[in-house]
């Protein structure tokens, strides 16, 4: 049975972590932060796609945590016609991933409500509403989206005698990974370190307490982390293929 109160519990606010230097994306990141890099053929920076997706999923307010070349990102956000309200924050000193997330979360407009968070170099599309419902159903404090990325190498299959039986180009990983998209309950922000990495402190503790959930991104949904120039090229090709369906 569908929970009639589910919609009212879904987040309407989010944090986008956009402070990375993107050194592996140079020269694209020589004059702009990583989330401002455009995927060829789309005419929109990565963060533009993210903000559009968040708005489609019911988000009305976003806090963007800036760092490297923050002024470039802030200038674009000020001039862009955005589908939601955006606030930017800049760390005055490096706080680490967990500290930066806590600092940004302190600027969310509804501290008593759940919130989404996403890394600024992720290009994806799936139902955040379904993820929020999954989070609520499990009574989790934090829920991570899980992806199965394709391996960058070809793989082989062998039989029991060591004979190669097949070649598979870029197969999906057998392991699920942290996809860089999250749902957090209101109390999560206070559990974050003021400085340091929450993935080494807060997440392991919640996992031991069985309060950390993993939401598998539905099969067929698009997901890619944009880390290198090759990722840009492949994302452009994949998105063109999707548009041609």
UniProtKB/TrEMBL annotation:
InterPro entries (UniProt xref): Mannose-1P_guanyltransferase (IPR050486), NTP_transferase_dom (IPR005835), Nucleotide-diphossugar_trans (IPR029044)
SUPFAM superfamilies for the chain: Nucleotide-diphospho-sugar transferases
Database matches in CDD domains: NTP_transferase
Start and end residues of each Nucleotidyl transferase domain: 14-239
Highest taxon of the lineage: Bacteria
One family name in Pfam for this protein: NTP_transferase
Entry protein name: NDP-sugar synthase
Source organism of the structure: Streptomyces ardesiacus
